[in-house]
């Protein structure tokens, strides 16, 4: 997947979470969870934009790790939403699938870049 498509998907994640949280009941619990998931989900796209401006491979990896953390946190809050019955599982299925795909792609990207960086360092040492 290219950078433009990944930017689009991470932005769409944030927008989907915004739409999802509009369905929450007006309770203290819902407000707290809404605040947390909005912060993490919107941070995925915002931090990926920073990745696109990475100054080096190491900078890319460090910034992608932040994207990974935020996406994983979003997955956590989706589990909380489901298990606390704030929304029905059916309403969350697609969003959970997308978050898990994004996490997997981020992890794979970090791994690929790390392998390349390690090979580059090894060739410079020999």
Automatic annotation (TrEMBL):
The cross-references to Pfam families, in alphabetical order and at most eight, read: 23S_rRNA_IVP
Q: Out of the domains of life, which is the source?
A: Bacteria
Q: Name the PANTHER family on file.
A: FOUR HELIX BUNDLE PROTEIN
Its name, as the record gives it, is Four helix bundle protein
Instruction: Please tell me the species this chain comes from.
Output: Butyricimonas faecihominis
């Amino acid at each position: 997947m290219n950078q433009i498509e990944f930017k689009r998907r991470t932005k769409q994640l944030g927008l989907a979470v915004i739409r999802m949280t509009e369905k929450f009941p007006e309770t203290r619990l819902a407000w707290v969870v809404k605040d947390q998931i909005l912060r993490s989900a919107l941070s995925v796209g915002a931090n990926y934009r920073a990745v696109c401006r990475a100054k080096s491979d190491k900078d890319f990896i460090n910034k992608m790790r932040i994207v990974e953390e935020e996406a994983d946190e979003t997955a956590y809050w989706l589990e909380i939403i489901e298990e606390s019955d704030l929304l029905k599982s059916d309403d969350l299925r697609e969003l959970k699938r997308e978050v898990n795909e994004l996490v997997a792609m981020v992890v794979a990207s970090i791994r690929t870049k790390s392998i390349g960086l390690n090979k580059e360092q090894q060739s410079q040492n020999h």
